[in-house]
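User: I'm preparing a small set of examples for a lab meeting where we compare how different chains pack in three dimensions. I only have the primary sequence for this one, and I'd like the structure in token form so I can line it up with the others. Please keep the answer compact; I'll paste it straight into my notes.
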Amino acid sequence: MVGRAKGERRRATGSAALVAGLVLGLGACARGGTSDVAGPASQTSTGRSTTAPSASSGRTSTGSTGSSSSAPSTSTSSSTAPPAPPSPSATPQDTSLRPGDSGPRVRALQRSLARLGYWGGTADGTYGGLTEQAVLALQKQAGLDRDGVAGPRTLRAVAKGTRPTVGAGRTDRVEIDLERQLLYVVRDGSVQWAISTSTGSGETYESSYDGLAVAVTPPGTFAVGRVYDGSEVATLGTLYRPRYFNGGIAVHGAASVPGWPASHGCARVSDPAMDLIWSQDLMPVGSTVVVR
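Assistant: Understood. Below is the structure token output for the 292-residue chain.
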């Protein structure tokens, strides 16, 4: 009787241990499933992995039930974050001034050009045709592109104080520079005003007197002869308030004064510039005109 009771107690103790082991095993599987989502693989009490496929090996381990885990591991210990995209570089601000602009900066430009000796009318703060002609004159003097726009290089030339200059000669004269396409009003040996001009284009044209002729402005030293205070109609066009200095070649006003040679031989200036020449008598009859 005593032996049978002891055996029954041993069987009961073994059964209890077996039940406890199963409970612990089931609890470990549940914890292993949770850890798959949260982080790296966990191990059961038996040492078998219960995780989903490893990111580094690509192999699948199963738990004691033989089923795979619900989600892949998110461990990326060996990876690095992608580099941030480069920030866009700042676009330089365009400080250019051009026809149609207006405001204090335009007025300051106009005043600076006038101080340097480039005639452009009144400093009214509006970038009109006369300001464009004054900018052209400075560009010609400085050897810049002749576009009439006060871009960075032109503005630097203004800030640098680029003045019109001429060589030695009569102290009072008008000088026409064929290369630079500038008309200089020289007084007491210094340039009073530099005015943009357009001289003979060098092209062949039909002349009513000599047949075919070449549009040139001959170099040399001349004197102002005939003058006409008005718009004079000639065979090749209308000349505004011309002052002739070499036969039929004159300094006169014109609606178009480009940055390059474009006339039949005369020296074109803007109509307002021709008004200035008349109002201040800058080319009196008998005065010297030098073309070089």
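A couple of notes for your slides: The first strand starts at residue 173 and ends at 177. Residues 157 and 262 are 26 Å apart (CA to CA).

User: Perfect, thanks.
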